[in-house]
Amino acid sequence: MPAEPAGGASLSWEDFGRVDMRVGVVLDAQPFPEARKPAIKLSIDFGPLGIKRSSAQITDRYAPADLVGRRVIGVVNFPPKRIGPFVSEVLVLGAYGDGGAVILLRPDFDVAPGARIG
For residue 69, how far is the Cα from the chain centroid? Predict the structure, then answer.
């Protein structure tokens, strides 16, 4: 589990405003055996922003088949990141549970793909 951020480190409202978080719907999820750490390759529909791909280290709690159709929250304005033979375009957000497993964030109610998080 990652260390907690140092106390006193603050983020301005302007900085936070530049983070573009959106709701997406997982269209496809596949094992990613080439990844250094166990991961799942996701194709996510972000509505007007299109379909974007992500590599998510969530294999402790999720199987690929269980993710299809699920709503997730993702940061869509990071630069793409190459992970082996795969390019990840989105950071899917989650919280670290007991034991360090990632638990995906999602809205309580169905909202349209691409809905902005504020």
Answer: 14
